[in-house]
Amino acid sequence: MTEGTTAAPMGFGRMHRKEDARFVRGRGTYVDDVRLPGMLHGAILRSPYAHARIVSVDASAAEAHPGVKAVITGETLAGMGLAWMPTLSADVQAVLATDKVRYQGQEVAFVVAEDAYTARDALELIEVEYEPLEPVIDARRALDEGAPVIRDDVEGRTGNHIFDWEAGDREQTDAVFERAEVTVAQDMLYPRVHPAPLETCGAVADFDRVTGKLTVWCPTQAPHAHRTLYALVAGLPEHKIRVISPDIGGGFGGKVGIYPGYVCAIVGSIATGRPVKWMEDRSENLMSTAFARDYHMRGEVAATRDGRILAIRVKVLADHGAFNGTAQPTKFPAGFFGVFTGSYDIEAAHCEVTGVYTNKAPGGVAYACSFRITEAVYLVERMIDVLACELDADPAELRMKNLIRPERFPYTSPTGWEYDSGDYPRALRLALDMAEYDKLRAEQAERRRGGGPLLGVGISFFTEAVGAGPRKHMDILGLGMADGAELRVHPTGKAVLRVSCQSQGQGHETTFAQIVAHELGVSPDDVEVVHGDTDQTPFGLGTYGSRSTPVSGAATAIVARKVRERARLVAAAMLEASPDDLEWSVSETGGRWSVQGSAEHGRSIQEIAMAAHSNLELPEGVEGHLDAVTVYNPPNLTYPFGAYVCVVEVDPGTGQVKVRRFTAVDDCGVRINPMIVEGQIHGGLADGVGMALMQLMAFDEDGNHLGASFMDYLLPTSMECPSWELGETVTPSPHHPIGAKGVGESATVGSPVAVVNAVLDALRPYGVRHADMPLTPANVWSTLQGEPLRTDLAIT
Amino acid sequence: MQVPARFEYERANSVPHALALLERHGPESRVIAGGHSLIPMMKLRLARPEVLIDINGLAELSALGVEGDALLVGALVRHAELLADPEVGRYFPIFHDAERVIADPVVRNRGTVGGSLCQADPSEDLSAAFAAVRATALVQGPGGVREVPIRDFHRGPYETAVEPGELLTGLRVPIRPGAGSAYEKVERRAGDWPVAAAGSLLRLGDGVIAEAGIGLTAVGAEHFAAPEAEAYLVGRAPGAAAFAEAGRIAAAHCNPRADQRGPAAYKRHLAGELVRRVLTRAAARAGSPEGEE
Ligand SMILES: Cc1cc2nc3c(=O)[nH]c(=O)nc-3n(C[C@H](O)[C@H](O)[C@H](O)COP(=O)(O)OP(=O)(O)OC[C@H]3O[C@@H](n4cnc5c(N)ncnc54)[C@H](O)[C@@H]3O)c2cc1C
After folding, report:
1. In terms of domains, do A576 and A624 share one?
2. Fewer CB in 10 Å around end: N or C, chain B?
3. Range of the domain at A598
4. Nearest CA to A589 among A678, A523, A659?
5. Is the CB of residue B77 below 6 angstroms from any atom belonging to ligand 1?
6. Cβ B189–A716 below 8 Å, yes or no?
């Protein structure tokens, strides 16, 4: 354990969220609330086809429409060198299509008009002639001989293959499989889902022709990365670009990248000399912004007959859509899928991932997945249940038998990840006890004899790798994943913390203030957190992959400790003592430096702050003031984990599933504000219920998007969610300054498979081993008939 | 942002005024009631009326209560009002069953009975409920009020017997003392449109079924009804076997189509299963003095 690490929550634990004072009054400022004098409005014309050649675009009628200020087409952008932009995965993506459209909903033209109504009216006046082409919709056919080539914009491309990536030791793994007593295999799809934040994407761009300064308001999870990208793409000087990320109505990873609409708004403002607002609607958001998952997986497990898991082998076909635009560290084309060995101590493992293009929207890691750990956890936790079926073993016992033991930490996995800390059996035992697992199994046996609704119990145990990450291994487009922090302490001892990450609901204004408050012995109310404005905050890569607390939170603790050390020097001057003779203490009255052994003979942090700005004579080399800056480059990822138990009832006559109970034990290391941690877990568990049971984003054979509204793409409501039962264990991260591990995605990663395992457990007497998400009533019923649905394609 | 195309707005202050406005503005005008079907379609620009005629101020269309031997439901009665009314629940528990699972409270506070029936969406819940109880629709035009049996009201998807220039003013449902009724729906999530749903009304006499009404929605049942199954039941003793067979007949005569809610075979199965269940519940409710379970 490092300094400052305790099993109890940090000081000021469950304080109410500071930001809620404005949110509950409806006084937040979201991008759509930004209204500038003279502001114009943009709208995007989108492709009705999934794959078609653009023969011609005629915008003359739209340009002549009263109130229209500009119509921007692919050709306009091509003239500026902006028709294509780099993606976060070393590919390019069309801003506005020039040659072909490659998915339904792709951006074709942009209208700028006096108001949003006129802009929409004018879209209907743009005439685009398309020559429809055969689309590639089924990822499993993307590599077929003769499949249409989607990316013929790239010279020499003859197929839809993007990359092959592997991890682990193939030979060793194959050898273990050869001699194993038991092997099981299962195909499974983690379907395409969408983060569907309540606030859709949008931007207000304001280019000042006099100063040459571009200001972009945009709900981005990574404001600094956006600024650098705009500079690189548009050739604007980086110091003349200011990105302001205002309050964000949910991100979940979908607001990491740059969307064509942002670039269009910027070009629109440069072209007209007036601010331009563009806000997408719900269907646009669902059709064109970053999806998540879409992993077609085949898992195999080798084990002994008494249930000792020896090896795991995985093959993945990854559907990346029409442009490879997943947001992940450069060296990790399959994200952190490599942690697919999960929480189990096994000998050997190997995986191969092949990425392919299809005529669908780009994206890939959005939706709280910790860079594809969601898929990895789903795979391994499903496979454990498949193995339990094969061995007729209890899935809880099977997990318990194979979990990594506490004494094995730090644990290096067969695919090379170094898990920092954990006590897995303790967490699983707690979850089983809370859920009264044995009683549930007894009730299930009873039900199976007596008829009526089926009872299912599902377990998942997950380990995440979050807080990306060590700069040596992890960068996005060459930008290392270290975060800055800056702390100013005003003369009266009030402080302003500036951080690079940006909250989308995680409560940073509260928790980061709590970290500073804890380290300096001040009230969190005396610490203002500034974030989301690149002109006001130090560089860093933003909030996603559960990295804010592991990286920016660490930077915050360290910068506060730097301030504390400066305060020691100033206090020493005030007390006319040697800095080495001073000791730090925090009491009810706050933090103070005092001469060892005489606490009353000390100075409070507020007194020290005033002195640091006064005419007090400071020792040689001490500059004055207490302000400090730092950059935190994490030495390793952090590894939160948890054990979940889900109980469902299934009506076999209709296929309807009801989640009766859900028990979630999370270990995210030291908890800063347990209430905020629990809130994030609640949200993630609801996400899991949604993905497991209802979120359906399929495409028909023409490539029509069949989930492009909230009537088709369902989000769970409180009616589908039980009252969550939460538990915790605390295993601090040994390398994080306050022992915290990050929790933003844990429940979204861990819960879907618990629900799926529960439903399939209920169906077990019917000989069912697997069915793909979402387990809608239709899918459950079809599974009972022996014909589970293929959930990525239209139901016919 | 979703924004509708340009339109004009008129507010009617009486039924004759509304009819006059309809006549004046012609076929490109549309009545707006709760707006929960029409406005989303306008925002998606699937509907582009030139003039909206707002009938929300017409108190005479908001009546709800027993009149003689019938329940009268005004066209402007909101879903939430139908759900909250104890008399409705006493005589026709089918409406309370149905309203509990139609949309969500926000939509129910505003959406109307008349709007639901006139929208004539092939998945509308109330269409099946009113078909099961054999209501009569009251349609008013320049020439006066017409009475249209509910099973002649729906002419096909999104098509009704209400002609341009006419208004649906309300529905009349004959009260059958001692009858039982019920509604059940399978949905993917609370507030979702049905995958399939069924309603039924049963009146018993001398130990056999004297009257059977069966409504079905979202499964391509003509006029939202299952006449073959109804005919099978009349004169038979109520019971599990008869109800299962009625379900089977209803399932065989509907014509569901596959969509993302499920394959046709599943919907057909649901039609049978739900008919069986609502008959069972309606029978349990029938005969008890107040019609409630
Ligand atoms: C999120 C959501 C979920 C829903 N879920 C369900 C559900 O599960 N089950 C279900 O059955 N419904 C559902 N609905 C539909 C809901 O019941 C609507 O309120 C209803 O379809 C229309 O009623 P309205 O009063 O809003 O009609 P409006 O939208 O005002 O009108 C609909 C149509 O009827 C016409 N019209 C309205 N009143 C009259 C009249 N008196 N005479 C002649 N024409 C008239 C209008 O011109 C228009 O064409 C849902 C709606 C939403 C928004």
Report:
1. yes
2. C
3. 20-27+482-632
4. A523
5. no
6. yes
